[in-house]
Amino acid sequence: CCELFAKPEVTSAVQSLGGNCIIDFAWLGPGDVIIVELNPFDGVCLGTFPASTGLFLWEEERDRAIMKGEAPFETRIRTERLSSAALKAQCNPDWRRIIYGETKV
Q1: Which end of the chain is more exposed for a tag (fewer CB within 10 A), N or C?
Q2: Quick one: which of 39, 37, 73 has its CA closest to 53?
Q3: Nearest residue to 23 via CA among 32, 59, 78, 13
């Protein structure tokens, strides 16, 4: 997986995000890992919503320290699918309105 970061296109993409991002990986099988997406992360607003942080919660002090590089790197793996309701609840309210057609209250 580490060799993914040596690729010029990945290095360039990370640099274009200011050097800080949240990365989504997909494990396709033994020795086969791909980068799904790079999400901008500024440690203040960008990348702090549950839909961006995935298995880490910005509101949790321990998780926040990991995301900000103040605690050791950690990999988490989801082994079960989230329900549609859980995915919708984690979505940024502005995106939820766009994706699900909800109106502002």
Answers
A1: C
A2: 39
A3: 13
